[in-house]
Amino acid sequence: MEIETTRFGKLEINEERIITFPKGLLGFPSHKRFALIQTGDQNYFFWLQSLDDPGLAFVVTDPAIFFRDYEFALREDSQQELGLSDASEAQILIICNKVGEYLTGNLQGPLVINAASRVAQQVVLNDRRFSTRQPLFRLQGGLPLARSA
């Protein structure tokens, strides 16, 4: 499938890279279809590119790369909406943002993806341990700020 993006121009993507968010993303309820795009050889960061808006894309990463102990209980209604028989079958990504000199991750609003069906949902966690702007690393130094043992 060919898609148009403002960052990368026209891209040919495998349909297996398309993720559907039936409820959209927080702040973007009408954007429901996204493609997960890898732009280089490194596997830490990807672009979640909207198929509905060529100018809308988010940098995402697997939070386990930075926080080995990042876990949360997925509500039963979310698990059912995603068609997950077990929450451990879900793939988790977080949206990243540049805040000052840091790259941060939204640990309070993770993206939960059923890897088999590619149906996803952004959930909101009511857990004070997590921040919407959790520092991942300082951009100038590139060294991670937090790693769990």
Please describe the topology of this protein.
Blueprint: E1 2-5, E2 9-12, E3 18-20, E4 33-37, E5 45-50, E6 57-61, H1 76-82, E7 90-99, E8 102-105, E9 111-114, E10 119-122, E11 134-138
Antiparallel strand pairs: 1-2, 3-4, 4-5, 5-6, 6-7, 7-8, 7-9, 8-11, 9-10
Could you describe the 3D structure shown?
- There is one protein chain.
- This protein is mainly β.
- The chain has a single domain, classed as Roll (BH3618-like), CATH 2.30.290.10.
- 5% of the residues lie in helices and 36% in strands.
- The chain contains one helix and eleven strands.
- The chain has one helix at 76-82, and strands spanning 2-5, 9-12, 18-20, 33-37, 45-50, 57-61, 90-99, 102-105, 111-114, 119-122, 134-138.
- The chain starts with a strand and ends in an 11-residue tail after the last strand.
- 24% of the residues are buried.
